[in-house]
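WARN  no MSA supplied for this record, continuing single-sequence
INFO  ligand: glutathione
INFO  echoing inputs
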Amino acid sequence: MKLLHVGASPFVRKVMVVLELAGQTQVVELIDGMGTPLAPNSDVTTHNPVGKIPCLILDDGQALFDSRVITRYLDSQFGAGLYPDGDAGWKNATLEALCDGMLDAGILCVYEFRCRPEEYRYDEWLEGQRAKISRGLEVLEREWLDHLNGPMTMGHVSTGVLLDYLDFRREFAGLPEWRGKYPGLEKWAAEFLQTPAMQATQPA
Ligand SMILES: N[C@@H](CCC(=O)N[C@@H](CS)C(=O)NCC(=O)O)C(=O)O
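INFO  complex generated
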């Protein structure tokens, strides 16, 4: 299998963490998938018309995207056990969607600085994206700590990837600070971000 990949992408990182947890990093060949809406990567658009990574190309040539599809596929292939059934499964899927939505907002802020000429930058729109992240952090602290302190799911991976991404891009894109503001989340993250799968997939 081939994975269209960029080391700084949090959505790619979700996939890499699942591979690490399953002990299966060797099954994918990493291919550079760097691109932006202004400069799409042709290897990526060949397989995913919307031009986004991660995109997993199976051995028969079939392309799988987006990150949630790929992580579910890998989980089912390798029995990683990150997608529980029943009520816990719906909670897990919702937590993953929440963190992905917050990451989308973070990436739009990064693109605003990276892709849009300074004279067109729209501060109110940037603040709107940052507010999505801040509201999400409040909800993670208020409503999700029981889940996060329970058995490991994909939602845990997404939350860890999100928090690290906020640290990674805070300075560049003015992303909201979570350290020192959400004690439950910070306590959970202090342990989770040190786990081997998270350490092995640091954004770069
Ligand atoms: N919902 C998608 C989001 C993926 C995404 O936004 N990827 C970014 C890199 S982090 C990308 O490929 N951007 C290129 C573009 O938007 O043209 C997923 O979960 O895979």
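The chain has two domains: 2-78, 86-196.
INFO  checksum written, moving to next record
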